[in-house]
Design goal:
The chain has 3 helices and 8 strands; from the N terminus they run E-E-H-E-E-H-E-E-E-E-H. It is α+β, with helices and mostly antiparallel strands and about 140 residues long. The strands form 3 sheets. The chain has a 4-stranded mixed β-sheet with strand order 4-3-8-7, covered by helices on one side. A hairpin with a 5-residue loop joins strand 7 (about 90-95) and strand 8 (about 100-110).
Length: about 140
């Protein structure tokens, strides 16, 4: 594996052109080679959206400081905010215990949803689920 220098960056900054194999082997992808990426506001815990990543989108997200997804409808990469200005600045990325979902913690600038709402779940709306009872108090 060779490193590629980043044009216009400091000479000691290099990016791998492929996802780290140790990370890649931990991923459990769907039949299209994608992993779900849950995006969360880093300081409030607010769930902003769900996107999809393949190895290249994850590599870009891990190395560029901005979130990149694979668009299933357009079949192309898209970096959140490039056209809208509503960027997602990466704070951390974690893999769940099964390897089939990512948690991407970000600083969201502007709306996360393409509809203009703060979150995609605001835009989708509450489905009116029955609320379960409060959990019993923990025993000492």
């Amino acid at each position: 594996m060779t490193d590629a220098s980043v044009p216009g960056s400091a000479p000691d900054v290099v990016l791998d052109p492929v996802l780290d194999p140790a990370i890649a082997e931990r991923l459990k992808r769907d039949e299209h080679g994608l992993v779900a990426a849950i995006v969360q506001q880093h300081d409030t815990g607010e769930v902003l959206m769900l996107g999809w990543m393949d190895d290249e989108a994850l590599r870009r997200t891990l190395t560029e400081g901005r979130v990149t997804f694979w668009s299933r409808s357009r079949e192309e990469y898209w970096r959140k905010g490039d056209t809208s200005g509503h960027v997602q600045l990466v704070r951390s990325v974690a893999l769940d215990c099964d390897g089939d979902a990512l948690l991407v913690r970000v600083h969201q600038v502007g709306a996360a949803c393409h509809t203009g709402t703060r979150t995609c779940f605001e835009a989708g709306g509450d489905l009116g689920a029955v609320v379960g009872p409060d959990a019993p108090a923990a025993r000492p």
